[in-house]
Amino acid sequence: ALERLLIALTAMKLLQRDRMGNYHNTTSSTTWLTTKSPQSMTSSLLFHKRCYDMFGNLTEVIKSGQQQITQFSTLSNPDRFNDYYSELAKHPEEYLIFLEAMNRSSVGIGSAIPGSVDFSNIQQVIDLGAGGGQVALELAETVAHLSVKMVDLPIACQFIQQRISTKGLEHRVEAIPGNILHDLSAKLELADAVILSGVLADWGVNERIQILHHARNLLKPGGLLLVSETLFDETKTGPLQPAILSLCMLLAMQGNNFTPSEIKSMLDDAGFVEIRFCFKNETGVRDLIVAQKPL
Questions:
Q1: Nearest alpha carbon to residue 135 among 120, 151, 122
Q2: Which of 35, 105, 271, 284 is the most buried (most CB within 10 A)?
Q3: Rounded to an integer, what distance in angstroms lies between the CA atom of residue 10 and that of residue 14?
């Protein structure tokens, strides 16, 4: 049985067999599929396996219109389910896989932002719902004068703090435990910019209103809100990536992906002005929406 698996992996170029009949990793499998490689995709693959399992319930979701998170393997008490992140936080091993996977999918986003936003007059940045910290850490490394505070649940902050220490950024970057659905103005000083990276699409209408309200309250007058999302086109006929992400939201979260006009309407209602878009064909990564708090 094992030999059959090894032959299949060899045919897929993931293993190679030497003259003695021993099997070894190929360069590609060593790069992408070993946990010690800096470019490892193992966490992403493990997380997407969970997503694949949930897609097995897609028929029931379409019939009922209700999220099927109760089928997710980590759910401890379906009757008391609140939100995906609160539930995931009860399962540290699963949460760490999720954070690693999110970091992997966010590579390049933070370093691309300064290509669309002038940071010369921005000193303090808050990243709300920072996840594994990839976006804010890239931004801090790219713009050397920034002071960055990342906010997320305690377990995420522990993960982020390790990455901050590894990169030697403790003097400029800080992880602060907090819930982005709550008012954090008593805990944080006002910032020149607030980041919401891959956050809004995870939540329902009421939660998005709360998050945008809290983000606005954390900004100085004239401060910038930087929203990073994967947007539909205006006709909602594509692209494919937000369409698949929208199904993931239906299965596990409470949210959905947006068109440009839909997210502009949200930002208008939240009191932001000077809204502009930097689409992924310009940045090479996730779409960026820039809005300003009125002076």
A1: 151
A2: 105
A3: 6
- pLDDT tens digits along 167-220: 999 999 999 999 999 999 999 999 999 999 999 999 989 999 999 999 999 999
Q: What is the pTM of this model?
A: 0.84
The 10 Å Cβ neighbour count of residue 49 is 11
Q: Are 138 and 108 in contact (CB under 8 A)?
A: yes
In this predicted structure, the answer to whether residue 295 has a pLDDT above a threshold of 60 is yes
- What is the 8-class DSSP label of residue 231? P
Question: What would the pLDDT profile of 246-290 be if each residue is shown by its tens digit?
Answer: 888 888 777 899 999 999 999 999 999 999 999 986 665 789 999
CA geometry: angle 49, 52, 58, nearest 5 deg: 160
Question: pLDDT > 70: what percent of the chain?
Answer: 91
The DSSP letter of residue 168 is T
- Residues 96 and 163 sit within 8 Å (Cβ to Cβ): no
d(CA 76, CA 285): 35
Res. 81: pLDDT tops 50: no
Copy the structure tokens of residue 226: 């930087």
Picking from 236, 139, 242, the residue whose alpha carbon sits closest to that of residue 192 is: 139
Structure-token match 């901050």, residue found: 164
Angle in degrees, 0-180, between the axes of helices 42-55 and 92-105, rounded to the nearest 10: 110
Is the CB of residue 173 less than 8 Å from the CB of residue 166? no
Contact call for residues 110 and 142 (beta carbons, < 8 A) = yes
Whether 254 contacts 83, CB under 8 Å: yes
Q: Return the amino acid letter for 241.
A: Q
Which residue spans within the chain are E strands per DSSP?
15-17, 23-25, 124-128, 147-152, 173-177, 191-197, 219-229, 273-278, 287-292
